[in-house]
Amino acid sequence: MAFKLLRYTVMVLTDYEREEEKKRPGITRTKEFRYPPIIPIVYYEGTSQWTAVRHFKERVYLNEVLGKYIPDFEYLVVPIASYTNGELIEKKDELSLIMLINKLRNSGDFKTLKEIPAEYFEELSEKTPQYLLELIGKIIAVFLYRLNVPRREVEQFTDQIKGGEFQMLFDSFEAYDVQETRRISKAEGKAEGKAEDILELLSELGTAPEELCRTIQETTDLEKLKSWLKLAAKAENIGQFREEAGI
Question: Which of 6, 68, 156, 226 has its CA 20 to 30 A from that of 17?
C-alpha cells in the first residue's frame, strides 16, 4: 500500500507541475516554485485491524542505515466500519455521504439510508459545488455497481447527484429496496411451487409422513428442491425417496 500511495502522489505532483507549466512556462524550474502538500489517506473497508506498515521507508532494505536518503512519508488509515451512521450524518459533508454509501454491503443495507434526516440532504444540496457533485457521482456509481445495481438505475442515481437532488436519491434507494423485496418474494414463490410439485409426486407413492411434508414445505433452497423433485419423479416408493434425498 505504501508504494501505491507513493506512485499516486508522484502522479498527482506530475500533473500539477504540467498544469502550472501551461499557465506560466518555466515556473517549475525556478527556486520559488513549490509543490502542493498531499496527505495520503487510506479508507479501510475491512473489520479487522489494519496491520500493514504505514511508513514507506519500512518497505526499503537498509532503511536503518540509509534512512535519511530514502523518501519517506506516513499515511493515515480511516477505518470506515468504526464510524456509525449517526456520526457520519453529523458531519453533513460530501465525504460523509461517500462513506455512508461505501458502508453498504448488500441491497438489504439500503434500508439504513431511510434513517438519514432530510436536513442532511438539504445542506449538501446547498453547499456542494458542481465539480464535486460530478466526482461524488462517479465514486458512488462504483459502489452501486459493486452491489449489482442495474446500470439504468446507477445512471439515474448519478444524474440526481450531479443535479444536487440528494433527497430524490434517497427516494430512489427506497424504490430499490422495494425491488429487492419483490425479488425475495418471487424466489419464495418459486420455492413454494417446487415443494408442492414434490409433495404431489410423493402422494402418488403413498401417504408421506407429516414431518417429511413439513421439511419439504419449509425448505427455501431452490437447488435442493430441484434435486428432490428429480428424485421424487424417479422413486418407486417414499422410503427410497427419503433415503436418496437424505431427509
Answer: 68
